[in-house]
Amino acid sequence: MKDPERRLAEAIDFALLNGLLKYTPQGRLAHAPFALTPSPQPARAMARLEALTVPFNALAWRVAGDVPFLRAALEPAARHDTFLRNLLSLTGTADRDQPLRLLVTRNDYLMQIGDTPADDVPRQVELNTISAAYAGLAGRVHALHAHLLAGQPEAARLLPNDPLVGIVEAVSQAHGRYGQPGAVCLMVIQPEERNIFDQRLFEFALLRRGIATRRLSLPQLAGEGALREGHLVVRGEVAALTYFRAGYGPEDYATPDALRARALIEASSTIAVPDVATQLAGAKKVQQLLTDPATLARFCPPEQGKAMAAVFVGQYEPQASLTLGSRKLPAWEAACAEPVRYVLKPQREGGGNNLYDQAMAEALRGMSAEQRDAYILMERIVSRPHDALTVVEGVPRGGPHVSEIGRFGVLLAEGRRELLNRDVGYLVRTKAESSLESGVSAGFGHLDSLLAVDTSS
Ligand code: ADP
Ligand code: MG
User: How confident is the model at residue 207 (pLDDT cuts 50, 70, 90)?
Assistant: First the structure.
């Protein structure tokens, strides 16, 4: 056994040598936040989550194909939300010529605490259909843990992980089907991206498959992109794919030209990952509606529906009526009465937008009925903590932590035919038990891997 200090120094050196990197807000190069030892999780539950990727992918794809459903679902929320209204206005308008659809998804889960560890069960937090990040760095932190465990008995229980491989394979297949060998992949980025290494890993892996990537922001694309015979052409090159690592929040549409660029992508034959409909299929409101069994049944076979519904927690329209014991009351009032049991979510992605506890109750009380329509209420998932040591910019910190587990998936379809649908690996973000959010870039989450444990006995 190495002493802890040497072990920490070795881990940091490994991280730096192997691309587990970030830029600090000051622009300094540093290792990305990581957990020193992998997160212990029940083997059977982890296998179950892996198996759920395929049905959830198919679900998102089918929902994306039903624009009238998306419109009906999101129009009430869009009345109070310019960003959502703008996106909705782009659905179903373009009459474009592209039967290929590629989804790169990440389904996030927390383990809900039971009476004993054997009773802990996985519950879905959300399905991401746009900018599902950290596939590259997840592989890097797995390599770190594999290195640190080498020669120890636990090594055999570290669950293999390199999601980027499967994502790049799917992108490459989509590119092949587009049928223009010299065409590029356009990556839509935010100008001041700090999580650039995760993106570079994608870009460089794609280049090894013979596909070049061009990085542009939406405003840049508005200036430099054009439609030529249906193709999206940027600086003289056809973009076979347009892969979004931006475009999921209002900040990315601060100027009208950004929305014009999005419309240009939608109108062209580029394979948008995602197109607007697929992005909206991942909206919180849509996920809330899908917790209704009859709605879910419209989009999937019964067996798959049952398996997916088993990981849902309750999600409600704030105005909907809820039965609490013998009382019937609006969900939002129930949430105000017991704030710790709920999370209030707006139609936003990217972390930092949810409301909890007293802030949630105050916000709900201050809203009109119509304003509440822009949100969903979700039952709060509480996880069993485990002791972990996390490392941020060289500084270790111990204590109780909980892990959020994401499963990456890819789905490639042509028209109504699925060509490829598979799970490609995982992301673990481990956060201090007291932290509400788990964003890695936001400074809460630490990249981690899975150590399978047997809780059956
Ligand atoms: P975003 O799209 O902004 O990432 P999420 O739904 O993933 O929104 O929520 C952000 C974070 O908040 C999650 O990563 C998770 O840590 C926490 N969270 C979200 N929903 C719940 C919930 N129902 N129970 C407990 N924590 C939650
Ligand atoms: Mg999320």
Answer: very high
pLDDT classification of 231: cutoffs 50, 70, 90? very high
Question: Cα–Cα distance between 43 and 451 in angstroms, integer?
Answer: 8
- Residue 326 — pLDDT band, cuts 50, 70, 90? confident
For 281-319, the DSSP string reads: HT-HHHHHHHTSHHHHHTTS-HHHHHHHHTT---EE-TT
Q: Ligand 2 center to residue 152 CA distance, Å?
A: 34
Give ligand 1 pocket residues (Cβ under 6 A). 108, 110, 125-126, 313, 343, 345, 348-351, 353-354, 378, 380-381, 404, 437-438
Q: What separation in angstroms does the CA of 60 have from each of 40, 66, 101, 345?
A: 30, 10, 12, 19
Identify the burial level of 319 via C-beta atoms within 10 angstroms of its C-beta, where 0-12 means exposed, 13-18 middle and 19 or more buried: middle
Please write the tens of the pLDDT for every residue from 87-103: 999 997 656 778 999 99
Query: What's the CA-to-centroid distance between 229 and ligand 2, angstroms?
Result: 37
In the structure, what pLDDT confidence band is assigned to residue 456 with cuts at 50, 70 and 90? confident
Go through the domains of the chain in sequence order and give each one's CATH number: 4-313+381-453 (no CATH), 314-380 (3.30.1490.50)
Mutate to test the pocket of ligand 1, among 111, 134, 315, 343 (most ligand atoms within 8 A of CB): 343
In the reported structure, the alpha carbon of residue 406 is separated from the centroid of ligand 1 by a whole-number distance in angstroms of: 12
201 CA to centre of own chain: 18
The residue whose C-alpha atom lies closest to atom 6 belonging to ligand 1 is 126
Tokens of 316: 């409600």
- Ligand with an atom nearest the CA of residue 314: 1
